[in-house]
Write a structure and sequence with these properties.
Layout: E1 2-12, H1 15-42, H2 47-61, H3 66-85, E2 99-102, E3 108-110, E4 115-119, E5 122-128, E6 143-152, E7 155-165, E8 176-182, E9 186-192, E10 197-201, H4 203-222, H5 225-255, E11 261-266, H6 274-286, H7 291-304, E12 308-312, E13 332-333, E14 338-340, E15 347-349, H8 353-374
Parallel strand pairs: 8-11, 11-12
Antiparallel strand pairs: 1-5, 1-7, 2-6, 3-4, 4-5, 6-7, 8-9, 9-10, 13-14, 14-15
This protein binds zinc ion (ZN).
Zinc ion binds near residues 324 and 346.
């Protein structure tokens, strides 16, 4: 499995090249704003289609080279998808500060001596802060990906995505299974091989989220330049807070499990039928705000600790009896938070049912994969 790290470093652009780079970054941001207006109106999030509709103008009016024109589309689609994944309303993404996303070996390169970047008016080379960077030049381990140039308080910084292979464990080495359900009352409910249930209470997060949402709504209604600035600052603060919470949760989930643990979570990306989508999307938007981010962090940390994450079909996980497999929506009494199987009578608090079913699906996954191994 491929993992990604972000290396952040300062780059020292000479006074004479400064304008050149800043002009290119401004052109890039302007192009992003143009593309963003198109995406906002059409709600089109397909790279190919957005590119088809904006490419010509981005090239002729903003003068971006072709590779950068594609990067700008990717930048904008990425912003909208992140907002969507975080459950934010559909608002227009704006790029007010000069920035630029670069493809490795095309728009930029970096070696032990210099950083080199293409501008709208030729290439420039620059020194950079080398401390901590040496390790990434080991090509047998790390591969450079896209980089972002940002300009902050009069200084230039480079954020490089560095890819490397994680040390994924084999199914045969798995000694513990944990199912994690993500929900409203509890951010996660987990059920493991020892029959132990653990909850992360979601109340505080729910309240703070509601507070942010309310604040955003008021600022949107005000619609003044200063309220827009505050809106942006609040969005960034909420995002940092969310990342922080997810970091703590994923860390706790991983460090409380032994090496060789299989984590089982719901796969919400491939939900097909319309009714199911509404139901789960509602739950997703109103509840698991930063589902995707938490998932990424869990996968990343599990991999570092010799553990593995699988995603399974989320259908019926809260209606199925974890003891006899009977599926019935009446098994669950949502008001009383009680699960009672209509077939075998198994009764439990309903918050742990989905986690128990995910646990069971993890066991099934192991049986299936081992069967297929032995039948080879
Ligand atoms: Zn049952």
């Amino acid at each position: 499995m491929e993992l990604t790290k972000t290396a952040k470093l300062q780059i020292y652009i000479s006074e004479s090249d400064k304008t050149l780079l800043l002009d290119s970054m401004r052109a890039y941001s302007d192009a992003c704003n143009y593309i963003s207006r198109y995406v906002y109106t059409t709600e089109d999030l397909s790279q190919i289609s957005v590119q088809k509709h904006t490419y010509h103008t981005v090239r002729s009016e903003y003068h971006l080279p072709s590779q950068m024109a594609c990067n700008a589309v990717r930048t904008v689609i990425g912003s909208y998808k992140t907002n969507k994944a975080n459950g934010h309303d559909w608002v227009m993404c704006k790029y007010n500060t000069p920035q630029m996303t670069l493809s490795w070996n095309r728009d930029y390169s970096l070696n032990r001596e210099k950083f080199s970047v293409g501008t709208l008016n030729g290439r420039i080379k620059a020194d950079y802060a080398k401390s901590g960077m040496e390790q990434y030049f080991d090509k047998s381990v790390f591969r450079f990906g896209t980089a972002k140039v940002v300009y902050k308080h009069g200084k230039f910084f480079l954020h490089i995505s560095v890819n490397y292979d994680g040390n994924e464990i084999k199914e045969a080495d798995i000694c513990n299974v944990v199912g994690h359900d993500r929900g409203i009352r509890f951010i996660t409910s987990s059920y493991d091989s020892n029959g132990k249930t653990t909850f992360f209470n979601g109340n505080e997060i729910k309240q703070r989220r509601a507070h942010y949402k309310n604040l955003r709504k008021q600022l949107q209604q005000a619609g003044t330049p200063s309220s827009r600035r505050r809106l942006k600052a609040i969005g960034q603060r909420e995002n940092r807070w969310m990342q922080d919470v997810n970091h703590c949760i994923s860390k706790a989930l991983v460090t409380s499990s032994p090496k060789g643990t299989l984590h089982v979570i719901e796969d919400l990306s491939g939900i097909r039928s319309a009714t199911e989508r509404v139901r789960i999307k509602d739950r997703y938007i109103s509840v698991s705000w930063s589902y995707y981010d938490l998932e990424q962090k869990l996968i990343y940390k599990a991999n570092e600790h010799g553990q593995k994450v699988i995603k399974v079909n989320p259908r019926y996980t809260s209606q199925t009896c974890p003891k006899c497999g009977h599926i019935d929506r009446n098994n669950r009494n949502k008001q009383k938070h009680i699960f009672c199987c209509k077939n075998c009578g198994y009764t439990s608090n309903d918050d742990r049912i989905a986690a128990m079913n995910l646990y069971r699906m993890g066991i099934e996954y192991l049986i299936e994969t081992q069967t297929s191994i032995s039948s080879l």
